[in-house]
Amino acid sequence: MPLVVAAAYGGPVVSEGERRQTTIYDVAAAAGVAPSTVSRAFSRPGRVRAETAERIRAVAAELGYRANPQARALTTTRTGMLALVLADVTNPVFAEVVRGAGRACERDGYTMLLAETEESAEKERAMVDRAQGSVDAIVLTSSRMSDAAIRQIAKVEPLVVLNREVPGVPSVLVDFEPAMRRITEHLAELGHRQITYVAGPEASWADGMRWRGLRLATEHLGIRLRRVGPVAPTVAGGQTAVVDWDDHRTSAVVAYNDMVAIGIVRRLAASGVRVPEDVSVVGFDNTPVGELVTPALTTVAAPLRALGETGASNAIALAAGARSRATDPIRLPTRLIARASTGPVRG
Amino acid sequence: MPLVVAAAYGGPVVSEGERRQTTIYDVAAAAGVAPSTVSRAFSRPGRVRAETAERIRAVAAELGYRANPQARALTTTRTGMLALVLADVTNPVFAEVVRGAGRACERDGYTMLLAETEESAEKERAMVDRAQGSVDAIVLTSSRMSDAAIRQIAKVEPLVVLNREVPGVPSVLVDFEPAMRRITEHLAELGHRQITYVAGPEASWADGMRWRGLRLATEHLGIRLRRVGPVAPTVAGGQTAVVDWDDHRTSAVVAYNDMVAIGIVRRLAASGVRVPEDVSVVGFDNTPVGELVTPALTTVAAPLRALGETGASNAIALAAGARSRATDPIRLPTRLIARASTGPVRG
DNA sequence: CTGAAAGCGCTAACAT
DNA sequence: ATGTTAGCGCTTTCAG
Q1: Residue B326 maps to a domain
Q2: DSSP string, B13-58
Q3: Distance from CA of B92 to the nearest CA of A (A)
Q4: Are residues A28 and A67 in the same domain?
Q5: Cβ contacts (< 8 Å) between B292 and chain A: which residues?
Q6: Residue A219 sits in which domain range?
Q7: How far is the CA of A124 from the C1' of C9 (A)?
């Protein structure tokens, strides 16, 4: 069966049906060297004479040789793949993380495997389970699993958790405390003396951190803090929170995230309460829509892309043998973005 | 070196450092059968007596056996992985596609590999190149590569293209023609007699289709059509388009997508032109933000999730040997969503 | 620096 | 229905 060689797309292509790939043996034969030398020429360039390596590369290119990743992985136990698991790519916050992780992978020649858990701890476990054998490292974003489960996985596989602190497991997270302090200061400067926090999902580690940071900061500045919720981290969730706020009105509201904040603003507007004249509203995440709604949202920009990027590159380093048992989380700095949804409190 | 067995997370776990996995040989020995029988028990359950299979499974579970995907792939040449390549997960449109493809993969027990090309045809080629050996099928979303290059890949690897038509290559796409017709009818019903189309990226296949659909529909209904652009498919892009529109004002503007539409509305508002009182604006894609901006955007909902899902499942079917050389694209239906950015033309 | 030989863990004929 | 025997394509000792 004759090979049909096509010039256009990188090397030989076999006629439909027949798919035998060119192996190191083919290259070896054509280059007049032993197969092991071909292998070395690709995986350990230093260990072969420059000339020989050159010739081998040439022949390989001509024959369209491509190393078989599976075969390689079989002996090296390294697949060059990293699994990124998260709840929902459709959430802009996670999308940024994906982008960052993708960059890190590309930089280090890794391939990224994406697993969406759709908020289910069970699914998350299943996905990790399946990915486990195929990847060199795993990055868990806002994991829903128990600390114990996560630690267990970390024991078997290089693992980094994002937006979550698990003692003993490398993690990188958004530095919430200063973020909440900045929000509080911003509000205080505008004259606000009481704040309502609209909480997000109870199970969320991030929600706990935001609440904690806010408590610390308000205490320090002598500001009254109330908490309502939890609500779903969505526009609808924010809307439902307004009735609770209405029970004990405060001049400022800090929402779990931008979506919730937008929901609050909308419901407020619907009942004739003006933002920011009557009440100031603060979001979190600096989601793109925050800039497009009216009024534009005051919010906190988290370095989401960097989160994904450092998470992935740390995981890759771990896979490469970097036993940095320094278990202190890496904390990424945030930035307050003051826009039109906050304003001075009215006498 | 003694093994440390942990009960908590699915089976044995070795002490740090030592990572030897349990193989079919271990299971075979423990179950008192030949290795090949263990293999069969997992890959070809029918070919082994129920009792035996049961015993093998039990032993395997106890030993924490997990098939090595690389080894399996080496003989079967099937990896159980699918590559989804697209420009940008951060774009809500693509995020939905990812979600859909992820679902299809999960349903069929596939693992999804994600590659972001960041709009570069070169990068796209490189990513495909790298994924090629590791996956059973590839899904290309809004590819920037040439038809020839795509066809070449399709010859070597099961491939489905999304949002693009490449003769001879299976594709699934949003059915633009009826979508543009619906937009035109909607506008015509409101009394509009001239429309400006604000074009997206020139290289975009989707842009070409939208323009074509609009031309057909306006011709049919006797409506004047003008075209401005191309502009970047972003809010900023939309803003720049307004000056061109201003040269020959029309009572209605159809934008390449929601982002462009939002940009247009904002710039219009900034110069005192009211939407929809003075001019009606229509977007495309039904991005979540379209509902949150003021005025809420009239747009077209494309079945993005379904796009990803049918794309992936077709690719998987192809990988499984379904030689459906029916090269007619699958066209997915759209839905007009009339909101507040369109209104009757004013006498 | 290069060659020869022995697997990695699994599946796929071929036997029985 | 199960056991035996060869490899899949690559890396890796171990020799030379």
Answers
A1: no
A2: -PPTT--PPP-HHHHHHHHTS-HHHHHHHHH-GGGS-HHHHHHHHH
A3: 6
A4: yes
A5: 235, 262, 289, 292-293
A6: 176-303
A7: 27
